[in-house]
Every structure is written in structure tokens, then in C-alpha cells.
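Per-record layout

source: Anabaena subtropica FACHB-260
name: EboA family metabolite traffic protein
length: 250
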Amino acid sequence: MSALITIKTTSISSLLRYWISQVVDNKTIIWLDEKKEQIKNSVTGREFFTAFSMVSRYVTKDQLQLTLEDLKAASALHTGWFPGHWSLEQAARTILVLALPQDDTEKYLHTLEQVFTSADVSELVALYQALPLLAYPERWQKRAAEGVRSNMTAVFNAVALRNPYPAQYFDTLAWNQMVLKALFVGSPLHLIQGLDVRANGELARMLVDYAQERQSANRPVSSELWQLVECVKPIRNSQFAVRSSQSVGS
């Protein structure tokens, strides 16, 4: 479903709408368009909460089937945005989030914080995936860190994987903790955006300590860990001697 061939998109919302429209019936698109306009013109914000919770009644969790051109269109609208793994439901929820009025900063932040607080797992995944697309992105650092601390792997992955937000806005401590947790929960490091750019000596030391603990317990160490450690030249020293034949991909 190539948006580049058929239409010229001027916004993230219109691109998402186009992708959805290629799969769902016209009734669903009419509903989505109506809710989007109601949210834009809402005074109380009630329309947003109602529509956000009703999305699953109209749109399935089937994955978007995006082409390379679709992904290029996404990246052109927002650097690093990669919705290749998004579902129709997640795309529809994002359209509603992007429809929220942004002129009143505190009201906007409060409204989204409310939905973050009350959301179920699938709703949280959609919200965290959309972090880089939200207005006032620097104000979402604590919320993003909360997602990283989640004991729900799906929520953690929504923040950590294929998401440009952490690399752009996390401080070094939060970044290092996220990468280390990715290893703990078995999430693939290569899906973390900005991994090479944000590599640092403290993270390398943390990863070596983690590897030593696993090897002491005769447990495998992911080869991705060593690839990341070796990106940090200042820490190339005798600590690397811990790498052994036990260091196999987990």
C-alpha cells in the first residue's frame, strides 16, 4: 500500500488514515473522521477518552502491511519514525491522539497523562509507540521512563524498540538502564534506535559486569552485548578477557 504513488501526504495523521483506509470499510473511516473532528473541537476532552476506548470496536489488531515506500514516507514526515510493526488499531489510536488540541500546553499534557494512567496494555503500547509524534516531546521523559520500568514486556518494547524517542531524549542513566533491561527481558538490541550513537563507557562497564555474572552461572551471553561493548573504544581493556567460548547468542 504505497502512499507515495497514490497520494501526497502532508501530515502523519493523513498518512496513517491512508494506510487504514486501504484495509477497512468506509463506515470505519467515516467514524474515525468524525471522532477526529469532534476531538479537535472539543472543550472538555470527553470525546477523546470515549473514542480512544472505542477504537477496538471498529478496527482490528491486524498489522499494517507497509511497503518500503510507505516506510520512507513515514521517515520523511518524522525522522526515525518506523511504524512497520504497528497494527491498524494502534494507527487509529494515534490519529485520535494527534487530533488533540495543542494550544493549551498543560491541558494537552494533562489529558494525555490521564489516558496513560487509565489505559490497558494494548492502549499503552499504542501510546508509547507514539511518543516521538507527540507535541512537547521533552515533557514526556518521565512518562517514557515509566514505560521502561514496566513489568509488561510489550509496554517496555513499545518504548525501547524501533522508537527514536529514547535516543533523542533520555539522559545517559535512563538510556543505560533501558539497554540493560532489554538484555534482561530478552529484547533484541539491534532494534533499539541510536544504539551506536548513545554507546558510552559506563554502559560498557555495566554490560561487562552483566556478562560476567551470566558466565559465572554458566548461562549464555548474547553476541549483541559484545558488539555493543566493542563500539566503545575507551573501555577496550583487559575486561574484555571475560569474553570466552561461553559467549554465544542467547
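summary: Residues 1-135 form one domain. The longest helix spans residues 201-216.
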